[in-house]
């Protein structure tokens, strides 16, 4: 009788060990899947930010080229013929300063520039990602941005809450920022 009880206890202990082992295996697989998902999310956010930055660089170059030719960036407001339309990026997109405006706008929240302002030869505009509203890029050459008034900003910045983080850009290529079609000039 004692032998049967020993066998039973060993079977019970072995069964419990298998259950614990199975639970640990499921936890390990779950943890690995969660880690992979987080890595994928981070990579996707990095790609979206890179696309915002690339679009911001192109808009910055177009605004600089416009200002070099006219003395100032286009004023805000689509009701003016030379005013920047935040939904189409005209006149930059219609007068040869910015190619591919549709692709830039397609990645933005509401398919539009979130905000734009000009004071004299200074400008700033905000680009917000359509998929992740936490991804925000400021394109600026100004000391009039409301988040940090009287602080000179030039280039692209990631907006993180109430902080601006400068985005380091490679030096512009020769001819970068000039009109993008041969018919103007």
Would you give an account of this structure?
The protein has 185 residues and is an alpha+beta fold. The chain has a domain at 50-167. The protein is built from two helices and five strands; from the N terminus they run ααβββββ. It has helices spanning 2-70, 101-106, and strands at residues 115-119, 122-128, 136-142, 153-160, 163-167. The chain has a five-stranded antiparallel sheet, covered by helices on one side. The protein is elongated, with a radius of gyration of 28 Å. Mean pLDDT is 86; it is low at 180-185.
List keywords for this structure.
185 residues, alpha+beta, 2 helices, 5 strands, 41% helix, disordered C terminus
* Residue share in helix: 40-55%
Tally of DSSP β-strands: 5
Shape: elongated
In spatial order, strands of the major sheet run 1-2-3-4-5
User: What's the gyration radius in Å?
Assistant: 28 Å
List the helices and strands and how they pair.
Elements: H1 2-70, H2 101-106, E1 115-119, E2 122-128, E3 136-142, E4 153-160, E5 163-167
Antiparallel strand pairs: 1-2, 2-3, 3-4, 4-5
Short description:
This protein has 185 residues and is α+β, with helices and mostly antiparallel strands. It has 2 helices and 5 strands; from the N terminus they run H-H-E-E-E-E-E. The chain has a domain at 50-167.
